[in-house]
Amino acid sequence: MSRDTRDDAAPKWNRERPHTLVVACSDGRLQTGVDDFLQRRFDLVDYDRFYIPGGAGALAASGLEFLRATRLRRECEFLLVAHSVEHLILLFHGPAADGPGEAVCADYSRKMPAASPAEIRAQQDCDAEEVLRRFGRALEQVVTHVFRCEVAGDRSLHFQLLHERLCRA
Ligand SMILES: [Zn+2]
Residue 69 Cα, ligand 1 centroid: separation in angstroms? Predict the structure, then answer.
């Protein structure tokens, strides 16, 4: 773009870091729902984003993806330090018990092609524990929330809290 076409109404770069990192799935069907939830629950508009297939689930091996999970956790740990992150929000997603099967996370369908939505939900519960355990001391100074964004039968989105660590070490 040349200088002549520069937009006078262009948004401004924000010098301040938001100190919050959100790890979520790349699935764009959730985007406006996630933004709305983060604003209502945490008054968050600006936040660092780590959007990858599977979201928080990509940080867990789920029994087979050890190299990928380790590599992605290292990228997260880099951001925690480099961006002085004080609040980490880890998001899984999928259908609620009465939700549509097509809402299953594509990354989990890839990892667990024969699993039912209920089995994937159970795996995500295990994966949430695994992610927190494997981050270990990297999260000592970081307030951490883990949610699963669930799509109900009427397509409404509900954020189920899986873990909450409010106290800093
Ligand atoms: Zn997904």
Answer: 15
CA of 127 to the centre of ligand 1 (A): 14
Per-residue model confidence as pLDDT tens digits over 59-100: 999 888 899 999 999 999 999 999 999 999 999 999 999 999
Measure CA 77 to chain center.
Answer: 14
Domain boundaries, the chain: 22-165
CATH architecture, domain defined by 22-165: 3-Layer(aba) Sandwich (3.40)
Q: What distance in angstroms lies between residue 133's CA and the mean position of ligand 1's atoms?
A: 22
Distance 46 CA to ligand 1 centre (A): 22
Q: 132 CA distance to ligand 1 centroid (A)?
A: 19
Residues 3-49: tens digit of each pLDDT? 667 888 998 889 999 999 999 999 999 999 999 999 999 999 999 99
Please check the confidence at residue 160 and state whether its pLDDT lies above 90: yes
